C-alpha cells in the first residue's frame, strides 16, 4: 500500500502547481444535488448533513447544496441512478459508504456504477469496536479458548455490507459465528445484542460512543477488539477514540502466537481499508471541467483546515484525519479494485461459511 504521507504530499504539490492561494473562479451551478443512496437518519445521511454547511462555506458563491436521499438495494439503487443520470457540470455529487463499495468490489451483478468514472475528493475514516456478552466469561484474548465451539449469533445487515470484514476477523479467531442477516441497520443489531439474542456485535465509532459505552460501563458489554486505524505508513495502529482497546491484529497475535497472514487476512485488510479507512466518500464525475474540479478541491482543502469543522468533526465522526484530493482519489482506487483471484476467494468463503452466493 502506498504511504499516506507520500500521497498527501503529492496532493499538496498538485494544488500548488494548479495555483493554490489564488481565488477560484465561480464555475459551479447555483444548485448542487448531493445524492445519498441511503435513507434519512442513517450514518451516511448524518455525515453528509454535517459536512454540507461546512463545504458550502468554501464553495464559490455558496451554492445551495440539496441532499437527495435515494435508498434501496443497500445503496445500489441510488448509486446506479446517479451513475446513469449525473451531469458533469458540477451540479451532481454523491456520497457513498462501505455498503456501496463492497458490492462493487465483489462484482455484484446488480452494480451498474463504475468508480473509475468518478473522482474522490473527500474521504472520512471511521473506527469500530467488536464486543461480546459478559456471560461468555471472556475478558481478553487470553480467554478466547473458552469460546471454542460456542455458537455465536450475530445480528447483521447483510453478507456484503459493513459487517463483512468483521465476520472475517471473527472467523480468523475461530468463532463459531452464526450471522442472522436482514437487520435494517447496525442499530437494530445492537438492540438484538441488548436483548441477549446476539452474543457478539460491533458498532462504528460514533454509534459505540453514543450507545454502547454506557453498556460497557454497566458491565453489559465486553469490548473484545477495535478495528484500529491506518497510520501514515499504511499500518494498523490503535484507534485514538479507543486507545485502551487492542486492535484485531493485537488480539490475534496474543491468541494465536503469530501475526495474521494468508489469503483471508489479505482480503480482510482490503475490505477493512475500503470500509473503514475510507468509510464515507464524496465523489464527483471524473469528466467535470478542470475549473469545476479545482473549485471542489479548493473547498474541501480549506474545509478540513477549518478549526470549527475539525472541532465538530471529532464529535460527529471521531478523531480521524479526513483525506482529500489526489490522496483520496489514489487510495480509493487502490482499495476498491480487486484482483479476480481475491474476488473469487471471498465469494467462495461466503458460500462455504454462510451458504451465501454473490453473483
Automatic annotation (TrEMBL):
<feature type="signal peptide">
    <location>
        <begin position="1"/>
        <end position="25"/>
    </location>
</feature>
<keyword id="KW-0732">Signal</keyword>
<dbReference type="InterPro" id="IPR005064">
    <property type="entry name" value="BUG"/>
</dbReference>
<protein>
    <submittedName>
        <fullName>Tricarboxylate transporter</fullName>
    </submittedName>
</protein>
<comment type="similarity">
    <text>Belongs to the UPF0065 (bug) family.</text>
</comment>
<dbReference type="InterPro" id="IPR042100">
    <property type="entry name" value="Bug_dom1"/>
</dbReference>
